[in-house]
Specification:
By secondary structure, the chain is of the alpha/beta class. It folds into two domains: 344 residues, TIM Barrel; 138 residues, Cobalamin-binding domain (Rossmann fold, 3-Layer(aba) Sandwich). Helix content is 46%, strand content 11%. The chain has 21 helices and 16 strands. The strands form five sheets. It has a five-stranded parallel sheet with strand order 3-2-1-8-7. Strand 5, helix 9 and strand 6 form a beta-alpha-beta unit. The longest helix is centred in the middle third of the chain and has 28 residues. The two termini are 43 Å apart. The model has no long low-confidence stretch (mean pLDDT 94).
């Protein structure tokens, strides 16, 4: 195996787990789970206890993800949404608070990062108020466990009465530029999971779509990855966990099959948190988005009718793809979901559940192969597979592409992405394949048109699918491609330009930093006197200071000399012009 580890610290120098567990015992003795208004109303002590009661009664929970810049605005809007839904005969079970990324790092490091558009809790009182707004149970995941500030976030969350906290997957993918605390992050994350394991009824949450799951091409490998996360959190750290998914699941039946698959792995019977909405089908046509909302919520409700797992059905407002939704739009989404939950009773008896079970069994069998190959591979690399910290760090340093390439299942095919044909491709890979074929149909034969030309590709965030499309097109055109992966920094790009003498840089961006990123990269290229051009695609927008909305910055980016036409069909010609002149 020629596996490259991008090590950020020596995981062999992590503390012994006995030391970590000993410290957690002391912290747990000083921690008390708070009582939320939701717990008081339903006579329970944890969300898991409520979920088990609801499952037995056939009641389906509902979820919304919410979070505005200030605590006061967030509290006001949550209360308004709750009361308005109740007035209209609806309900909201739980609310996931969207925290800003600065919440992921210790307070003394927050000045090194620009504040984004999410919620920032600034006082202990605001933490304690999370569950005291209205009887809606709070859920924490963004920039909580898995981040450098994991332990403190977990402790404060538990004391506020939050008993479902994540996100396991964020450890592997969420980054905090300017704050390099990878060793501390790993130790803090281990302690946070272990702390959760000290309290009955707590749930460690993992949204697979936020982590490496976003970048695997095969659902079978994603299943094996879930086995790995469960091994780490439950078998080695003693907590109870559940999986969330859905952002990247467009196929309604695929959502049902995957839920059944995850439940088959749930030996502790831990109730689910929520199933996220399918946001890949959301566009700028709000009326069309109602079709996507209805499609995924109906499927999720049908699954809960057949096999209650406790997962709440999430409502994603139809404006989600274009801006931060208003409270009224959140309410409208829930009223739509209510109808889907009601009608799910009509569909459940007519689903071919035998076929669903068959597909589930394929994913589990193939997923287990991937899991076992990863474990064997880690041992071969000298990783202590009884130390969760070593495994967490090693997996992150290896990355999803190498994991899937070296250990993944699927028939080998050198022309396939990652040289393997997926057993069950993810919906995103299906979409990429379709888009790629459409691009090929719209362009003349491009084979050899970029022979001898070097291209750098990468993504500024976790979303690598746009990158994958242009990468496969560039390869077909004969280019030599240097794939820098996700969360690529301008500094990494400049270093690669120097090392490879590449002149064309293709970067995908979806995280609201298009202008600042382009400015930094262009300035860096000019400083080094490098003759390379940037082609930027995706969402050419920027989170503006003092505003919770990202605005289009295409003109400002183009003024820097950057190509931001967002035209996959034409980029081969653009690259040729960079090398040969227009």
């Amino acid at each position: 195996m020629n596996i490259e580890m991008k090590k950020r610290f020596d995981y062999k120098n992590l503390p012994d787990m006995r030391e970590i567990f000993g410290e957690v015992e002391k912290i747990a003795a000083e921690t008390t789970i708070g009582t939320t208004l939701f717990f008081q109303e339903h006579g329970v002590k944890t969300e898991a206890e409520y979920k088990r009661k609801a499952m037995a009664e056939g009641k389906i929970s509902k979820h919304s993800h919410m979070g505005w810049n200030s605590w006061n605005e967030t509290a006001k809007n949550v209360a308004y949404i709750y009361h308005e839904l109740k007035k209209r005969g609806s309900y909201l079970t739980r609310a996931g608070f969207i925290f800003d990324w600065v919440m992921g790092v210790p307070e003394e490091y927050r000045s090194r990062m620009p504040a984004g558009t999410g919620l920032i809790l600034k006082t202990p009182e605001e933490w304690k108020a999370l569950g005291q707004i209205v009887p809606v149970q709070p859920h924490l995941s963004d920039h909580m466990i898995g981040a450098p500030n994991a332990l403190e976030n977990a402790r404060l969350g538990l004391e506020a009465g939050v008993t479902s906290i994540g996100n396991v997957s964020h450890y592997f993918t969420y980054e905090y530029p300017g704050v390099e605390l990878e060793r501390e992050r790993t130790v803090s994350t281990l302690k946070a999971f272990a702390l959760m394991g000290k309290f009955d009824g707590t749930i460690v949450h993992s949204n697979l779509d936020d982590g490496f799951g976003n970048q695997f091409h095969d659902l079978a490998n994603l299943t094996g990855w879930a086995m790995m996360e469960r091994y780490l959190v439950e078998d080695l750290l003693g907590a109870s966990m559940t999986f969330c998914y859905g952002n990247l699941f467009s196929d309604p039946m695929g959502r049902i099959i995957f839920n059944m698959t995850m439940e088959a792995l749930n030996k502790k019977g831990t109730p689910g948190t929520m199933i996220f909405g399918n946001t890949i089908d959301y566009g700028l046509d709000f009326h069309r988005n109602y079709g996507a909302l209805s499609s995924f919520s109906l499927a999720d409700a049908i699954c809960q009718r057949h096999k209650p797992t406790g997962h709440a059905v999430a409502s994603v407002p139809v404006t989600e793809a274009s801006r931060i939704p208003t409270p009224e739009e959140i309410i409208e989404g829930h009223l739509c979901v209510d109808m889907m939950i009601e009608k799910s009773l009509c569909f459940e008896p007519f689903i071919n559940w035998e076929k669903v079970e068959s597909e589930k069994n394929i994913l589990i069998a193939c997923g287990r192969i991937f899991f076992e190959r990863m474990m064997n591979g880690l041992e071969d690399l000298g990783v202590d597979i009884t130390h969760p910290g070593e495994i967490f760090a090693a997996l992150k340093f290896i990355g999803p592409e190498q994991l899937e390439t070296y250990f993944g299942v699927g028939q080998r095919d050198k022309m396939a992405m990652r040289a393997k044909v997926p057993v069950r491709p993810t919906d995103m890979i299906k979409i990429i394949s379709q888009k790629r074929e459409k691009v090929f149909e719209k362009t003349p034969d491009i084979s050899g048109s970029l022979d001898g030309m070097k291209v750098i590709v990468g993504s500024t965030d976790i979303h690598d699918y746009g990158k994958e499309i242009v990468k496969t097109i560039a390869l077909k055109a004969g280019a030599t491609v240097f794939d820098l992966g996700t969360y690529v920094t301008p500094e990494e790009i400049i270093e690669t330009v120097i090392e490879t003498e590449s002149r064309a840089i293709l970067i995908s961006t979806y995280n609201g930093i298009a202008l600042s990123y382009a400015k930094e990269l262009v300035a860096g290229l000019e400083k080094e006197k490098l003759d390379a051009k940037l082609i930027l695609g995706g969402l050419i927008n920027e989170n503006q200071a003092g505003s919770s909305l990202a605005v289009d910055v295409t003109d400002a980016v183009r003024a820097l000399g950057v190509n931001c036409d967002n035209n996959a069909e034409a980029f081969v010609d653009v690259v040729r012009d960079i090398y040969l002149g227009s």
